[in-house]
């Protein structure tokens, strides 16, 4: 009985030690942590401000390098820091959405980096763009020239 308990104890310690070593391995290197992963514009005017930012921190112990950020379509254009982000430093990714497209917004930006915890990260934008306003020119339904 003592041999069985001793064997189980040795196995438990070996498994615990292996898991601890694995956890330490995963947390070394660059790590990316976003303050938010979804930006909700709510309802925005046609041709209104489509700019938003996603702030993040390098929570790792090595420089974070973002190699690419790509919008899910041509209407979503990201810009990101090209220089390495030091451990503990904050930075942001700006996203510009073309608000001359009325209707629902549901787009994504895929970020590629050397982050050990998330080398490919997807952030999203959502909301609604109001319809294009009607022009202020008089409408003529009779066929005669419009009076001004």
Describe the structure.
This protein has one helix spanning 2-27, and strands at 32-34, 38-44, 51-58, 66-71, 76-79, 90-97, 103-113, 120-129. The longest helix has 26 residues, at 2-27. It contains 1 helix and 8 strands, in the order H-E-E-E-E-E-E-E-E. 18% of the residues lie in helices and 39% in strands. It has a domain at 29-129: Sandwich (Immunoglobulin-like), CATH 2.60.40.10. It has 148 residues and is α+β, with helices and mostly antiparallel strands. Residues 20-26 have low confidence and may be disordered.
Query: How many helical stretches?
Result: 1
Strand residue percentage: 35-45%
The whole-angstrom Rg is: 26 Å
State the separation between the terminal residues, measured CA to CA: 104 Å
Count of β-strands = 8
SSE pattern: HEEEEEEEE
> What is the fold-level CATH name, i.e. the topology of the domain at 29-129?
Immunoglobulin-like
Q: Name the overall outline.
A: elongated
Read across the widest sheet, the strand sequence of neighbours is 1-3-6-5
Helicity, in percent? Answer: 10-25%
CATH superfamily of the domain at 29-129: Immunoglobulins
Oligomer: single chain
As residue ranges, the low-confidence spans are: 20-26
Q: What is the residue-mean pLDDT, rounded to a whole number?
A: 85
Task: Summarize the biggest pleated sheet.
Answer: 4 strands, antiparallel
CATH architecture of the domain at 29-129: Sandwich
Q: Mind telling me the CATH class of the domain at 29-129?
A: Mainly Beta
SS-based class: alpha+beta
């Amino acid at each position: 009985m003592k041999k069985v308990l001793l064997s189980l104890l040795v196995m438990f310690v070996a498994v615990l030690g292996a898991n601890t070593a694995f956890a330490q391995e995963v947390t070394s290197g660059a790590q990316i942590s976003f303050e938010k992963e979804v930006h909700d514009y709510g309802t925005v005017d046609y041709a209104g401000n489509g700019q938003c930012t996603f702030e993040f921190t390098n929570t790792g112990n090595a420089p974070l390098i973002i190699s690419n950020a790509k919008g899910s379509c041509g209407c979503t254009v990201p810009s990101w820091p090209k220089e390495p982000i030091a451990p503990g430093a904050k930075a942001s990714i700006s996203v510009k959405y073309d608000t001359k497209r009325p209707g629902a917004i549901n787009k994504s930006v895929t970020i590629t980096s050397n982050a050990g915890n998330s080398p490919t990260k997807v952030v999203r934008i959502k909301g609604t763009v109001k319809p294009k306003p009607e022009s202020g020119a008089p409408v003529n339904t009779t066929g005669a020239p419009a009076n001004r």
